[in-house]
Amino acid sequence: WVTFVDPEIAHVGMSEAEAAGKYRDLRILRWPYAENDRAQAERKTTGLIKVVADRKGRILGATIAGANAGEMIHVWALALTKKMKLSDMTGYVAPYPTMTEIGKRAAVTFYAPLARKPIIRSVIGLLRKFG
């Protein structure tokens, strides 16, 4: 659904509260409009995206509050319909600079904790040595 107010609010799938009633280990991912180059260029930095996923990265729901939210939610509606995971959302190339990149950035935050694991850090270090 989309509510065309200022700023727009759009939602698809489960809310955080609904998902918490069904799943034990949720991941709540957020990314602010203020961190997006297009939003900064257009001076529309008020807003954020919130994505609800399970611990394996399955997308359960998404809410966007901000400029063009109604135009950005379709990507998440497609992801839910096709049972995509966050890894699918991080793999696509969003045109730059667009507001759609806000959603991709939120999805990438799912993997941030992996970078702190010692084994992953070792692999990254080896990859850097080999260029």
CATH architecture: 2-Layer Sandwich
* Rg calculated over all Cα atoms: 16 Å
Number of strands: 5
What helical percentage do the residues reach? 25-40%
Give the uncertain stretches in residue-range form: none
Strand order of the largest sheet: 1-2-5-4-3
Summarize model confidence as the mean pLDDT.
90
CATH top level label: Alpha Beta
Q: What is the third-level CATH name, the topology? A: Enolase-like, domain 1
Helix and strand run: EEHEHEEHHHH
CATH homology superfamily name: FAD/NAD-linked reductase, C-terminal dimerisation domain
Structural class: alpha+beta
Strand content: 15-25%
Largest beta sheet, briefly? 5 strands, antiparallel
Number of helices: 6
How many domains, in number, for the residues? 1
Give the overall shape.
globular
In angstroms, what separates the terminal alpha carbons?
46 Å
